[in-house]
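Exercise: predict the fold of this chain.
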Amino acid sequence: MTDDAIDGRVGFETDGRTLCIRDALEGEEFPLRFDREPQPQPALHELFPVPVDRAVSFEAESVSIPSYASVMLRDADGDLVARLDDSMEFPRGTYFLDINGVTKALVRIPDVAISATGAADLEAVDLTFDRPTTVTVGARSLHTRPEATITVPDDPAALAEAVSVFGSSIKEFTPERSWPTLRGYPPRIRVGNELDVPSPLVAPDTGVEVVVRPTYEDIYRLSTLAYYLGARVVVGDAPALRLDTGYVETLPSEGVALEDRVEELLRTWFFLDTLARTEGYHESDRYEYEQVGPKLPFYPPNLTDLSMSERLMEYLEVDPKIVDPYMPEWPTEAVLRPVPEAAELLPHLAHVLAPIRVRGSADPTADAPVALATSPWLGPGEADVGTGDVPVPDESPIPSGTAVLIPDSYENRLTETTTARGDVRIVVLADSAERAGEFRRALSDPAIPDGIDSWEVIGAPDADTVTAVLSDPEVDIAYCGLPVEDGRVAAANGAVSVADLGGAPSQVVFEGVTETAVGISAVDNGGLSSILVESALDPDLFRSLIGLLSSGVPTAASIALSGVGDAVRTRIVGDPGVEIASHNQLLMQVVRAWSESPASHRIERGSVLSLSARIGTEQKQLFDEQQPINELSGRLRVDGSPLDSSELLVALNQGDSVVQLNGRLLLPEDVETEADIARLARQHLSDDAESQERVYERRSE
C-alpha cells in the first residue's frame, strides 16, 4: 500500500510552555507559546466557525504568536473585529484568533477581556486575558500537496473508484468550498497493476453520484466536476448526475456536447456557490452579487444550510447565460488523449478546477503528448480548421499558444522550494558576442528588474558551460539562445543532449524551437516549465518577459503581458499558471491603460490567477478606498473611471501590479515620474494621429 508515510494531517506536540502545531502534509511546524505548560485534551471541531482538521483544549491566561504570522481577531460569530498589528484592548466576550502562517490555526478564547500588543515592531503578537480560561486550539492543514497516492490499473471502472475519493481533500461541501483554501489537493494517481486506495482516503457522502460509461473519455470529462461536488463516480449506461432527492440530470452522450454541458454546470454551480457564501465565513459585499442577485429566483445565502442535492436543484433553475458575463475564465483548460497515462494528470487538473476535453488518438504508443492545455492569456494558437479553439495533441508540431502537460511538471513543483522574488538568478546563453551584448544591455539599461538578484550573459559558450547551466537547479530562469536540433543544443565545440542532463533550472526559455521534446526533457530533469519561442526575441521583449517572470507573474500571463505572445509563436511545457518566483502578495493585479490625453487614461483592470492563487479568491477594487465592494479574482473588466498619470504611477510602484500603457509593458525600473508616463502617452497619441492621417490619405487616393 502506498500511503506516503503520513499519519493524520495535523498533530500537536508540547515543549514546556509551547504548543507546536505540526502540519504533516506540508512538513511544517508552527509554535504558540502560553503562560503555562499546556495539558491538551481532544476538543470538538464544531467549536470553530470554520473547518479544522484537529483541535485540543487546555487552560491558559495568555498566548504569544510569532510575528511571521498574520493574526486577526474575530467575534463569537466569526466576524472580523480587528487585525492585530498594534496595541489594543477588547471588552469581555468570546473571541477567535484567526492565524495564517505556515499552517492555518484558530484559537477560541471564551468569556474574557483581552489586552493585545501588536507585531509592528515586536517579535510576536502577545495577548493577555483578564482571567484564566479554557482555550481551544484548532488547526487545518494548508493541504497544498496530495495526502496519499492511489494506484489504478488500465481499467476505466477502477479509475472511476479512484476519482470518487478526490473529494476527500475538500474540507466541507457547503458553498464555502468555492474558497480555494477549503479545496485541498486531491490524492495523486499512479498507473500500476491493481487498484489500491490508501486507508486515509474515503469518498465523501454528499448525496451526489456522477454516472459514466466505462470509458476514459467519460471519466476524464467528468472528473473535475465530480471532485468539486464530492460525488461518487459510478459506471452506467449513459452519463448522468443523480441526486439523493431522486432527481436525475441526464447528460449528453456525444463527446463534445457532454464536455460543453459539464463545463457549463461546473461554471454555473461554482459561481452560484460564491454568491451563496457572501454571508458565510467571511462576509463580503460583492460586485457580482449586485449584478446577478436580482436576476436569480432565490436569495443565495438562504441556500447555505440546504443539502448539496437540494441546493443543486435550485441552481438548475438558473439560466447559465446570467452567470457567463461575471464568471472568471478558467486559468487552465485541458485536452487529454483517452489513454491510461493521462489519468495521472487528473488530480492536478481538479485542484485548479480545470475543465477537461478529450481529443486525439487512443493508441498508447502514439508519438504525441498525452495532454495539452490552453490559457485565457494565450491566443488560440494554430488549431486545425474544424477543431475550433480546442487543440489536438496529435498535431505535429503542437499548435502555438498551447502548453504540454506532463505529471513531472506538477510533481517537481510539489517537491521544490520556489525562489523568493528578489532572489531570482538568471543566466543567458547567447550564440555570439554581439547577441550577448544585446542581452546585457536589455537586462541592465536603465536598471535590472527588481525581482532579479544575480544575472549572467555568456556569449558563444562551450559544451561544458552549456551542460553546467542547463543542469543547474540553482538557476531560476535560463535563456537558451543557441541553435537546438533533435533535442541537442549546439555549443561552440560540440552539442549537448538536454535529455542526458541530470538536473535543470526551474525554467528554460528555448529560442528558435517548435518541437516540444527538448522542453519536456528539461522538465523531466527537474524543471517546473519550459517556454519555446519559434524565433529570436527582441531584446526589449526579452527584458519584459524576464521582468515579469522574476516578479512572480505566472508563465502564460508573463508571455501575454510582456508582448512576447503577440510577437512570436510560443509554446509551453507545464501548467500555464506556474510561477517561477514567489511573492508576499496573493494575487498579481493587472492594469491595462489606453491614453485619452497625456494626463488621462481609460483602464481595464483585474488580476492573474495561478497555481498558487486559485479560482474563487476575491479582491478589492483598485484605486477606490471608499468602495468596499469585492469582486472575484481572475477577470479583467473595463473600469468606468479613468486614471490620471499619477495614479498610474502609484499602481506601477505597488509591487503587486502589472501595468501596460497603450499595449506597452511598463516596468517600475523604466518609469520614474509622472512626466515619464505623460511623455509616453503623448508619443503614442502622436503616432496614432499620424497613422490615422496616413490611412485617410490612402483612402483619398
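Check your answer against the key: The chain has four domains: 10-140, 149-361, 406-582, 588-688.
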